[in-house]
Amino acid sequence: MAVDTGRSAETAADGEHHSGRGRRGTAKNGNPPGRRRALTGQLGRQLSRHWYAWAMITPVVLVIGLIIGYPLGRGVFLSLTDADESNVARTIGVNEIPATYDFVGLENYTEILSDSVFWDRLGWTALWTVGCVSVTFLLGLSLANMLNRQVKGRSFYRIAMIVPWGIPAFVSVFAWKMLFNEKYGILNEVLDGGGIDAVPWLSDPTWAKVAVIAVNVWLGVPFMIVAMLGALQAIPDELYEAADMDGASPWQRFTNITLPGVRAVSSTVILLSTIWTFNMFPVIYLLTQGGPGDNTEILVTYAYRLSFVNSPRDFATSAAWGVLILVLLSLFTLIYRRALRKQGEVW
Amino acid sequence: MRTQKRSRPASVGLHAGLLIGTAVALFPPLWLLVTSFKPKSEAFSTALVKDFTFDNYDHVLADTYFLDWFGNSLLVVLGTTVVGVFIASTTGYALSRFRFPGMRPLMWVLLITQMFPMAVLIVPLYNTLATMGLLNQPVGLIITYLTVAVPFCAWMMKGFFDTVPVSIDESGRVDGLSPFGTFWRLIMPLAKPGLAVTGFYTFVTAWAEVAYATAFMTGEENLTLAGGLQTFVNRYGADWGSMTAAAVIIAVPAAVVFGFAQRYLVSGMTAGAVKS
């Protein structure tokens, strides 16, 4: 919730007094046509009134424009060409070789969409995202629920359980890679002790999928616990007391008070973690390199593979994959927001 | 928090659940730590340390490029954090306090950039950095990481500044401070928890980033830690001993920073939800 202090700041800055209404009016209506003087005058006024705000946002606008806006535009352009390692502009020694790639229109897209590789990867990416987010959410919610009670050692439990968050993901992934080692890893050693055959964690397509999801859940639960704990603590105790008076069972209290109470926060964290998981690169890239075969390759890692692992590097197709990922995510976000709005969520 | 009496089985179940959660959360990093003190040949023994040794650490620090990687990472992370937090906080302040033309579009852009997959940007960024001669340069990575960290941090800082009473700004102006003066002298000191959280977020993001670092930095001495760690365990061979020692050294600074920040982190993240 922002407070409009622009007015008083602006009075201090240019010594003039403007009413909030009038200011908004000028900003919205723009310039009346055919009045250059008025136009420059207005621009000048706007500038003297807002220059400090604009000065404060300039660095971020520059960063976003130059390093997100420009590459994004170029990425879209590249996806419409046949650029690859052999025909982009490059420098070899002192020779500058100019780019020789051609504009091919939507060819890359039709090729990708008519190929089963994309749909296979999309299917697994969807499964990966839904699997990771739902398990992470359920675990996070139940653990937060347990922590949100008077229990001995509460702060120890809480700190211990957010430890995975404090370790860089790539370090944790390597730790898991060691645990998952098929011949000597401790997971299989323990199973062996229990008389169970070794599990080919990372070399069997199905187990590899289980393994990457497990690791991602392990990485994601701490964030979920903290977010849900915050949401749970915001629910007033009186609601539970009133429910107790009415003789509600624990399950009834959970479904009628706890769940509605955490809904606003849940919808946000679920959206966030869906987007993060969809684009989660390190877990899969480092744990299985997308393997075995390309069984655990999600869209993002596959796009990366196209331009940085495979040879020759196929920049155009990779960019087209990237654009498709962006389109998918935007669609998802739109639909999700619309669904939330229908249910009366405010944001 | 509720304070009702629990039955004995419920209590046991509660502790059992929490203990299992704790064990699962702690085991992988602890096992990494334990393994790092074992001789290379015993990297995969299930026993706890039998012959305690620092060999792995010696080897990693003395015979590999680890210190170079560490230096590269540190440079990149500090650069990103200092620049990122600063420009995110000025933006957050402008968004929180002023109404100006271009504000709504900016907020939308900040929101939208957060869901940009790096897959869209990585190829053109690679080409752009290549033409600017910034591949293999820490500066190139700093610029890249700013795009990841800044939009989110600006949002968070806006949230924090929203919780700082406007009356403080007003009293600053009454005392004759300019908007920048108010921001720098009055508001920034009050925003320390927010700065800690965004700084922490930026630090962790940059310290743990893998994709850009792997793609943009080549040559053993130019890698960051994320790239360097991959060289120990890859498809050509596995030096688990060195990997564990390096991993521990990488995890410790992150864990320390996290330890300092987590109090703010938790209160910061819940600030929006908990009425105070």
TrEMBL record, chain A:
<dbReference type="Pfam" id="PF00528">
    <property type="entry name" value="BPD_transp_1"/>
</dbReference>
<dbReference type="InterPro" id="IPR051393">
    <property type="entry name" value="ABC_transporter_permease"/>
</dbReference>
<keyword id="KW-1133">Transmembrane helix</keyword>
<dbReference type="GO" id="GO:0005886">
    <property type="term" value="C:plasma membrane"/>
</dbReference>
<keyword id="KW-0472">Membrane</keyword>
<feature type="transmembrane region" description="Helical">
    <location>
        <begin position="51"/>
        <end position="72"/>
    </location>
</feature>
<keyword id="KW-1003">Cell membrane</keyword>
<dbReference type="InterPro" id="IPR035906">
    <property type="entry name" value="MetI-like_sf"/>
</dbReference>
<comment type="similarity">
    <text>Belongs to the binding-protein-dependent transport system permease family.</text>
</comment>
<keyword id="KW-0813">Transport</keyword>
<feature type="region of interest" description="Disordered">
    <location>
        <begin position="1"/>
        <end position="38"/>
    </location>
</feature>
<feature type="domain" description="ABC transmembrane type-1">
    <location>
        <begin position="122"/>
        <end position="336"/>
    </location>
</feature>
<feature type="transmembrane region" description="Helical">
    <location>
        <begin position="269"/>
        <end position="287"/>
    </location>
</feature>
<feature type="transmembrane region" description="Helical">
    <location>
        <begin position="210"/>
        <end position="232"/>
    </location>
</feature>
<feature type="transmembrane region" description="Helical">
    <location>
        <begin position="156"/>
        <end position="176"/>
    </location>
</feature>
<feature type="transmembrane region" description="Helical">
    <location>
        <begin position="315"/>
        <end position="336"/>
    </location>
</feature>
<keyword id="KW-0812">Transmembrane</keyword>
<dbReference type="GO" id="GO:0055085">
    <property type="term" value="P:transmembrane transport"/>
</dbReference>
<protein>
    <submittedName>
        <fullName>Sugar ABC transporter permease</fullName>
    </submittedName>
</protein>
<dbReference type="InterPro" id="IPR000515">
    <property type="entry name" value="MetI-like"/>
</dbReference>
<feature type="transmembrane region" description="Helical">
    <location>
        <begin position="122"/>
        <end position="144"/>
    </location>
</feature>
